[in-house]
From TrEMBL:
This is dTTP/UTP pyrophosphatase. It holds the Pfam family Maf. The lineage of its organism: Bacteria, Pseudomonadati, Thermodesulfobacteriota, Syntrophobacteria, Syntrophobacterales. It is an enzyme of class 3 (hydrolase). The keyword Cytoplasm applies.
Length: 212
């Protein structure tokens, strides 16, 4: 239900971010950015600054390499915080189990930073972040073991996917749901419209009728 006014590059390998955009009719080209999180994680007391800096760096990496005269680049980064501790992606099963048991029976925050960079005659960059509070019910050690065995935790901040089998762990969500999945969709669409990257409309014929 949106028409691109210029090519959109998604600077992210996350299949979830691509799916969220496609769900509303925005079809991006994907060019993942190899920006690593390590150098950005020092500012532990300021998760919004961490995810915003990472999103901006991912977008900048792609902008620096594109030769297209008019293009929009969209990048994002997601982290989880629990009582001031930052949780990225678990490196192994032990770390995934530890993350999930720390999330059990408590409330944590999911932060996503987003950067939209539009290159035409000049470069305009907008960066912001969103925070959602997620409450997990108490989950048993057996449930954690079984969940880790599915493999779902490994490419996800905090070691879980709210859109997947961990949906049964979630008691409440306060804030944007799509922010938890990796891209706050309402704010992203709003920004893309404001920067004239997309506009409402459809390329499909409205006169198509089924023949009876
Ligand atoms: C909390 C949570 C995170 N996630 C995902 C969103 C992100 O893809 C991932 C966090 O990792 P990110 O580093 O933000 O993104 P990525 O490595 O998948 O992709 P890229 O760096 O190329 O942009 O965790 C879920 O899919 N569901 C959830 O419930």
């Amino acid at each position: 239900m949106y028409i691109n006014t210029m090519p959109i590059i998604l600077a992210s390998a996350s299949p979830r971010r691509k799916l969220l955009l496609e769900q509303v009719g925005i079809v991006p080209k994907v060019i993942p950015s190899p920006v690593e999180e390590e150098g950005f994680l020092k500012d532990i007391d300021n998760p919004s600054r961490i995810v915003e800096s990472l999103a901006r760096a991912k977008a900048q990496w792609v902008i620096d390499r594109t030769t297209l005269p008019r293009v929009a680049v969209l990048a994002a980064d997601t982290v989880v915080t629990l009582e001031g501790k930052l949780l990225g992606k678990p490196a192994d099963a032990g770390e995934a189990r530890a993350m999930l048991s720390s999330l059990s029976g408590s409330v944590h925050q999911v932060w996503t930073g987003v950067c939209v960079a539009v290159k035409s005659r000049k470069l305009e960059m907008r960066t912001w972040s969103c925070c959602t509070e997620v409450e997990f019910r108490k989950i048993s050690g057996e449930e954690i073991d079984a969940y880790v065995l599915t493999g779902e935790p490994f490419d996800k901040a905090g070691g879980y996917g709210i859109q997947g089998m961990a949906s049964g762990f979630v008691r409440t969500v306060r804030g944007s749901y799509t922010n938890v999945v990796g891209l706050p969709l309402a704010e992203t669409i709003q920004t893309l419209i404001e920067l004239e990257v997309i506009r409402p409309g459809t390329t499909q014929s409205l006169t198509t009728q089924s023949s009876l």
